[in-house]
Amino acid sequence: MLKLLKYLKPYWIPVTAVFILVFFQSMAQLYLPNLMSDIVNHGITNGDIDYIIRTGELMLLVALGGTVCAVLAGYLSAHAAMGLGEILRNRLFNHISGFSLSEFDKLGAPSLITRNTNDVTQIQMVVMIMLRMMITAPIMCIGGIIMAVSKDKGLSWVIIVVIPILAVIIALVASKGFPLFQSIQKKIDRINLVLREGLSGIRVIRAFNREDDEKKRFDDANLDLTKTSIEVNRLMALLMPLMMLIMNFTTIAIIWFGSIRVDSGVSNIGNMMAFLQYAMQILFSLLMAAMMFIMVPRAQASAERINEVLATRPEILDPEEEVRPSSEMRGYVEFRDVTYRYHGAEEPALRNISFKACPGEVTALIGSTGSGKTTLVNLIPRFYDVDSGQVLVDGVDVRSQAQEDLRARIGFVPQKAVLFSGTIAENIRYGKMDATDEEIRHAAEIAQATEFISVMKDGFDSEIAQGGTNVSGGQKQRLSIARALVRRPEVYVFDDSFSALDFKTDARLRAALKKEMADSTVIIIGQRVASIMDADRIIVLEEGRIAGMGTHKELYRDCRVYREIVASQLSEEEIA
């Protein structure tokens, strides 16, 4: 957790002010019992009303000053803690944004969300309390002991007996609480995962009548979290009565033995009352320390999870010396003996892949499910790095180029169309932030999206719901294609981006794209042979290897795998 406290540096002024204010607040609290003792010993004993009034006024002034310090310290500590939370969330989000897909696969989206919300909140709460208690508790404890002993050394044995007992109780609670708090954070991850899957997959769940199973899944995760939380709260519930019991017995002991000392003339009532208050301050300071020990383990568990994310170094980084491609090789994509294996996989997803894609040409990829088509196109914008071989864009290895520059030259349409909340125009403009309204309309026309946009109430200003739930699958795909078209890149990559389109729309879209992308390099993943037959180059993948490469006629003549795919989709008349 100490690693995260360095991010408080921008708030060093409020933090310093909190320490100063808390110091004066603590000194005021230590001074008040001494004034009360003076009133009893001097004013009341001697009947000096003027002394009582003067000292009482001083007590009011000290109490008011302590209250003002406490209020200001509370405000400034909250300001610093919330500021720390803002910094941590920003750093986490920015760091996560630089992750490659491998890091996302490893850590998981639900866990990353929990770490950026719940875990940061835990840190905030502990820091806000610590800024005040880490100064107050030691001052009140040490100062209380000194003041109590100065008032009556004969009663100091009570404090000597009580403090070790409290220390043992606090240590036991902390040792049992830390593993439980760590477990709670992991179980919050689990419940977030189940909830996220249940909400995002609601259509599938209802289609297969699995609502009861999902409810049971959620109930199991919820019950598991609840049981652990109850166990923690039982531990905490046991601590408070024990502390209060010890404090009450301490009060009884001080009054009992103090009254004996007063009766024997060794001490007086004022000193006994002051000793009692100092004893309560000592015990309350230990109680505050106990609360810190209770909260710190959970915050420590959260801090470890946050540090794990911040310590995770992205596998894909920009090179120290960037190589800028020459304009002569604009749009050229080349794979040179590329092999790639996913983390933990026994076999490579791609083996010895070599081919070239040139401007003005359409290169199509086809193959059975799991043959490596999507993996291959994910290597072009450097979502993953190859294990061996090279992927070149514009004649330069993608690992030698800045990621931002590389991806700015690629129009990528993923297999799963993703839309963001906002208007249709904003979703298309996502591909080019400075795109004009005319460019947006033109991209929509090419993508065959104008037809359904025009019948929507607000046209291009119509709102897209979160996740694009108010548009169909085919409309999502067309808007995703328009988003890629608006940036006019050198290389277009379509990862099975026409699967939700009917044949008529598909044909119109491909005809429009052919004119629009005449000078660009186009790489298409297709499942339907009819949609890729006219490609300049068709690459057939099988189990991560190239089984054949050429035109439709060449492959149908020479490639067994391609013939099997064609025969499974087209009749003899269509093939001919």
Structural notes for this entry:
The chain is of the alpha/beta class and 576 residues long. The protein folds into 3 domains: 2-311, Up-down Bundle (ABC transporter transmembrane region fold), CATH 1.20.1560; 322-409 and 491-498 and 521-576, 3-Layer(aba) Sandwich (Rossmann fold), CATH 3.40.50.300; 416-488, P-loop containing nucleotide triphosphate hydrolases (Rossmann fold), CATH 3.40.50.300. Helix content is 64%, strand content 10%. It has helices at residues 2-5, 12-46, 49-97, 101-107, 109-116, 118-151, 156-200, 202-207, 211-263, 269-311, 373-378, 403-408, 424-429, 437-446, 450-454, 473-485, 503-516, 529-532, 552-558, 560-569, 572-575, and strands at residues 333-340, 350-357, 362-367, 388-393, 396-397, 410-413, 422-423, 463-464, 491-495, 521-525, 537-542, 545-550. The strands form 3 sheets. It has a 6-stranded mixed sheet with strand order 6-9-10-3-11-12. It has a 4-stranded antiparallel sheet with strand order 2-1-4-5, with no helix packed on it. Strand 4 (388-393) and strand 5 (396-397) form a beta hairpin. The longest helix is centred in the middle third of the chain and has 53 residues, at 211-263. The chain is elongated and about 115 Å long. The chain starts with a helix and ends with a helix. The model has no long low-confidence stretch (mean pLDDT 85).
